[in-house]
Each structure stands twice: as structure tokens, then as C-alpha cells.
Automatic annotation (TrEMBL):
One of its GO terms (cellular component) is cytosol. Monomer. Belongs to the methylthiotransferase family. MiaB subfamily. It comes from Paenibacillus validus. HAMAP family: tRNA_metthiotr_MiaB. Coiled coil: none annotated. This is tRNA-2-methylthio-N(6)-dimethylallyladenosine synthase.
Length: 495
């Protein structure tokens, strides 16, 4: 369903809005894997002496897509710039998960209009999850007609071709595939620093009732194990210190393989044997978290003792209406098993307050679960209705002020736990991967523990990119402070 469209009038013929019922009928269409991506010959030099700037919103999946788009642009000769005035291409890689994410993008488009007027040759593009929503495409066409290019999440490999069309067309070029595409394996990626993201799967089939992601990212499809493993090996060879495996629901990895029985636990067990110091993953859905995975994670080594395990709510009725497909009891039992197998595990979460119809008592259940589990931190959100999702049609009579108060109370509870948990670290010496200078003080270095806690300490800049030992001295809420222990032998592969 490739839909390139130069005529603004006809776009709706090609563009299909997200449909809950259609998406749920997803079949077992074969997903083909392609290994033959190439920038077309006539586009290889087109970016010579030209610059691009990409602004990315949303999750790590989107950040990683940006790295892929950058990779393609650089194969076309473009170079990166932070200066909007210098840029010949500006892309907004957008997120649709909550309304405020979308508002930011529309605000930004308002500002970019002036740039476009000053420099008509500028190519202004919108991509990412918002482009997969029909309402958004309509709104851009009506209110921001100066945009040159819109493409979605399933066709980023088409960037070279689409750019060419945008350059030579006087109309807005819109190519959004309403159905997910195949897996394209050999796309170039521009990675920076010491940490690398690696997709292990795309899409999501969970259909939590509040969530837009299954529509914007399409159905679940896993990369073949050998492709993931080859990529991780190559990153190890290139000297990356940490990798983050990405999927909307990594525990569903491999469910779509018909020819092999190979799941996320198996993948982690294989990646454990690769010589890369730290391996993380996100996001885990509690429902598919199986015992084999717990067993593998307990082997530690490069598999760090941090699990991001979004719970969303602590109340069974709300969980049911969210269609999370687990209960409070199931979640707590899973936490018990994980803590038994990995006693020093750090658990973090995502939590939504003010889901339609959430009562005070139901919210209290979330607070009590948070205290019972003892999350080290959590991302907390006020529910935001997303057009086309089932929850958007549920009656929502909770006043905005009540939702805000719930968010404050939840954050207070989380901060208190976080403080307590961090205090336990005082006096301990921890392995820290040094990432750079702290934002506010160039004499202070910042790094992360295996459990992903931010640590500040004083030390020479040569330590950036290395593992060091830091003795924890102070524990303010959002980071911890310590002293570099020079004499300690740096352990690179955990315990
Ligand atoms: N795949 C991940 C989450 C992706 S979205 C998972 O299932 O854990 C990241 C987080 O955004 C979600 O965990 C949820 O807490 C939040 N979120 C998603 N849709 C939302 C909405 N409509 N309103 C508020 N928060 C939302
Ligand atoms: Fe959204 Fe649920 Fe899928 Fe996560 S698991 S992306 S919250 S539908
Ligand atoms: Fe946002 Fe899309 Fe990620 S909606 S959270 S950028 S998958």
C-alpha cells in the first residue's frame, strides 16, 4: 500500500485513518525481511555541502528512527547542523502518545513557517507517529500548507526517494502507509557516543485501550535472531559500552516466528555471551514476562539488574478497562518472583492517573501498589484521550484539578521511596559508566550505575567513556553523589 501523493486533494484515497476494529483483525500476513537497501545513484551526491536538522520527540524508538534517517541523509552527502538557519532540511520526528506531545509539534510548525518564508529552498518535513494519524495530516494540510513532506513510521527507508520528490515537486508530498511494511535490515544508522539502541521488534499488538501506539507503529514483528545478534556483535566490535534493546513490548519477541521456537529469554541468553559490557532492554509488558526470562536475567553478567516494568494502575477494574490483561495480584506475584531471583533488582515503571472513571479509591490502589513494590522511579502521566482509541469514547468525568492532585500525590510517594532506596546506597562502591560532564558543572562528571541511576563525581575528563568505581556519599533525590575510587579495580562485566 505505497501511497505517494502530490495532489493535496486526493490524499484521503490513500490514507486510511487508524481503525480499532480493522487493526484488531490483523492477520498473519508474512513479513518479509529485506537486506538490499541502497540510496539511489542519483541521490548519492544530492546533499553535498548541505545540512540537515532533525528534532525528535517521544520514545527511544523514535530517537533510534532518527539515527536511521540521519544515516540515510549522510549517505546522500548531507551533514548535521544545530543551526536552523543553516539547515537545508528540517524534519520533525513526532510523537502521538499524549496531547501535549502533539501540541509541541504544532507550536513548532508555527515557528518554522518564518524560516521557510526566508529560505524557500528549505525542505520542511514531518514524520514519526503523528504522521500516522489522519487528523494530523489533515490539520497540517489545512493550517501548515508550507510543509513540504510528510511520511510515516513504516516507510522511513523511502526517505531518499521522498526527499527527491519533495525537492522537485511544488506540492506537499505525503506518503503514509496505513499498513506496516516489511522489515528492512541494512539501513544505515548514525550512532554517537558509547551507548547504542538496537531494535529487536517493531509494532505492538497489545491494544491497551488508552494507547495510540498499536495504530502508529503497526503490528508486532520481530527481527530474526541472527540479525539482532550480528548487529550487537558488530557494536561490541566498534567499542560501544552499552546497548539498549528496543521494542514496545520486548517480552512478546519471537511470538510471531512460525518456523522457530525462540523467545526473548533465548535472545537475552545469547546476547549475554557477547562481549559488550552492559545490556538493557525496554519495554517489558508484565503479561508476557515469563519464568525463563527471569532465570536468564538472574545470570547477570552484562545483563543489568534494572527492569522497567510499566504497571499503569494498581486497581483491577481500571487495569481491566485499560485492557492490560493482568491483575494487581499477577503483577505483585511477578515482582515477587523477580526480586527472589535478583535481590538487588531496581524496578521502575510507567503509571497513568485519571483514566476515565477512576475513583479516589481506585487511585489509592495505585498508591498502595507503588509503596508495596517500592519502585526506584517512575514516569507518571495524566491520562490523555487519543482519538480512535476505545478509552477516548469512555465517559471521563474526573475534573482536571483532581487529576493534577493525583499526579502530585503519586509523585510525592515515588520521590519518598526513591530517596529511601538511594539512601541505602550510601557508603557502597558502585560501577559507573562515565557518560560526560554534568550539565551544570564542568568539573563534575556524570555517569550511570548498572541500575541506571545518575551519579555525579569529580574526576578527570579522560574518564569519559570508561567504567569507574564510585563510593556513594550523598543521595539527593534525582541523582546520587560520590567519590571516584581510583585504586579500585574496574569490573566490566558485573558480578
Ligand atoms: N510500550 C510501552 C509504553 C509505550 S508508551 C509499554 O507498554 O509499557 C509510554 C507510556 O506512555 C505508557 O507506558 C503509558 O504509561 C503512557 N501512555 C500511553 N498512552 C497514554 C495516554 N493516552 N495518556 C497518558 N499516558 C499514556
Ligand atoms: Fe501501548 Fe499497551 Fe502497546 Fe505499550 S503495550 S505500546 S501501552 S498498547
Ligand atoms: Fe510516541 Fe510513537 Fe514512541 S507515539 S512514545 S514516538 S512509539
Amino acid at each position: 500500500m505505497t501511497t505517494t501523493n502530490k495532489s493535496k486533494k486526493d490524499y484521503s484515497i490513500y490514507f486510511q485513518p487508524p481503525s480499532y476494529s480493522d487493526a484488531k483483525k490483523r492477520g498473519k500476513e508474512d513479513i518479509e525481511v529485506h537486506y538490499d537497501f541502497n540510496v539511489p545513484e542519483d541521490m548519492k551526491e544530492i546533499g553535498k555541502d548541505k545540512f540537515y536538522l532533525i528534532q525528535t520527540y517521544g520514545c527511544q524508538m523514535n530517537e533510534h528512527d532518527t539515527e536511521t534517517i540521519k544515516g540515510m541523509l549522510e549517505q546522500m552527502g548531507y551533514r548535521s547542523t544545530d543551526d536552523r538557519k543553516q539547515a537545508d532540511i528540517i524534519l520533525l520526528n513526532t510523537c502521538a502518545v499524549r496531547e501535549n506531545a502533539e501540541d509541541k509539534v504544532f507550536g513548532e510548525l508555527g515557528h518554522l513557517k518564518h524560516l521557510k518564508l526566508e529560505k524557500p529552498s528549505l525542505i520542511l518535513g514531518v514524520c514519526g507517529c503523528m504522521s500516522q494519524e489522519e487528523g494530523v495530516v489533515n490539520r497540517i494540510m489545512k493550517k501548515h500548507p508550507f510543509v513540504d513532506l510528510i511520511f510515516g513510521t513504516h516507510n522511513i527507508h523511502r526517505v531518499p526517494v521522498l526527499l527527491k520528490e519533495a525537492m522537485f515537486s511544488r506540492e506537499m508530498v505525503i506518503e503514509v502507509w496505513s499498513k506496516e511494511g516489511d522489515i528492512i535490515e541494512n539501513l544505515p544508522k548514525k550512532r554517537e557516543g558509547i551507548k547504542a539502541w538496537v531494535n529487536i521488534m517493531y509494532g505492538c499488538d497489545k491494544f491497551c485501550t488508552y494507547c495510540i501506539v498499536p495504530y502508529t507503529r503497526g503490528k508486532e514483528r520481530s527481527r530474526r535472531p541472527q540479525d539482532v545478534i550480528a548487529e550487537v556483535r558488530e557494536l561490541a566490535r566498534q567499542g560501544f559500552k552499552e546497548i539498549m534493546l528496543l521494542g514496545q513490548n520486548v517480552n512478546a519477541y519471537g511470538k510471531d516466528f512460525e518456523d522457530i521456537e525462540y523467545r526473548f529469554g533465548d535472545l537475552m541468553d545469547d546476547i549475554r555471551k557477547i562481549d559488550i559490557p552492559r545490556v538493557r532492554f525496554t519495554t517489558s509488558h508484565p503479561r508476557d514476562f515469563d519464568d525463563h526470562l527471569i532465570e536468564v536475567l538472574a545470570k547477570k553478567g552484562n545483563l543489568v539488574e534494572h527492569i522497567h516494568l510499566p504497571v499503569q494502575s494498581g486497581n483491577n477494574e481500571i487495569l481491566k478497562r485499560m485492557s492490560r490483561k493482568y491483575t494487581r495480584e499477577h503483577y505483585l506475584e511477578l515482582v515477587r518472583k523477580i526480586k527472589k531471583a535478583i535481590p538487588d533488582v531496581v524496578l521502575t515503571s510507567d503509571i497513568i492517573v485519571g483514566f476515565p472513571g477512576e475513583t479516589d479509591e481506585q487511585f489509592e490502589d495505585t498508591l498502595s501498589l507503588v509503596n508495596e513494590v517500592g519502585f526506584d522511579s517512575a514516569f507518571t502521566f495524566i491520562y490523555s484521550p487519543r482519538e480512535g482509541t476505545p478509552a477516548a469514547a469512555m465517559p471521563d468525568d474526573i475534573p482536571a484539578e483532581v487529576k493534577k492532585q493525583r499526579l502530585y500525590r503519586l509523585n510525592d510517594a515515588l520521590n519518598a521511596i526513591s530517596k529511601q532506596r538511594n539512601e541505602l546506597l550510601k557508603g557502597q562502591t558502585l560501577e559507573v559508566l562515565v557518560e560526560g560532564e554534568s550539565k551544570n558543572n564542568a568539573n563534575v562528571l556524570a555517569g550511570r550505575t548498572r541500575t541506571n541511576k545518575l551519579v555525579h563525581f569529580e574526576g578527570p575528563k579522560e574518564l569519559i567513556g570508561q567504567f569507574v568505581q564510585v563510593r556513594i556519599t550523598e543521595t539527593p533525590t534525582f541523582y546520587i553523589k560520590g567519590d571516584w575510587v581510583q585504586e579500585a579495580v574496574t569490573q566490566q562485566l558485573g558480578s
